[in-house]
Amino acid sequence: MAGFLTDQWFDELDTAARGKHVADDLRLVIQQVVPDGPDGVPIAYSVSVADGSITVRRGWADAPDVTFTQDRATAEAIHRGELSAQTAFIEGRLRLGGDLRAVIERAGSIADIDDVFEAVRA
């Protein structure tokens, strides 16, 4: 299993995503930001959903619909399944930016996308 936030981890996420099909009409770009990544360098990656497929890319998305920002400890706890994103948000440990309506309207689809990455978390 690849270490969290490593290049290999991003490759594993993308491989897991490419094997799954989602609704053809769903279009969404979710940017994830961890300001205190390894060696103190910010880490950003995006999950893009379009035309029935999901891709994961390391780096900054051109036009994300929504951006989730959390410190590394929070990101790791969410990754390990010890903390839900909802709880992190309520506790102020996860910040949302962008079109929050996009998140609310697509909450079920976003949960389905998260399930795609279950194998990478295992």
Structure description:
This protein has 122 residues and is of the alpha+beta class. The protein has a single domain (7-121), classed as 2-Layer Sandwich (Nonspecific Lipid-transfer Protein, Chain A), CATH 3.30.1050. It is built from six helices and five strands, in the order αββββααβααα. The longest helix is centred in the N-terminal third of the chain and has 12 residues, at 7-18. It is globular and about 40 Å long. The mean pLDDT is 86.
Summarize it:
With 122 residues, the chain is α+β, with helices and mostly antiparallel strands.
Question: What is the string of SSEs from the N terminus onward?
Answer: HEEEEHHEHHH
First and last CA, distance? 8 Å
What's the architecture, going by CATH?
2-Layer Sandwich
Name the overall outline.
globular
- Total strand segments: 5
Largest sheet: 5 strands, mixed
Percent strand equals: 25-35%
How is the largest sheet built, in terms of strand order? 3-2-1-4-5
Q: Helicity level, as a percent range?
A: 25-40%
- Rounded average pLDDT: 86
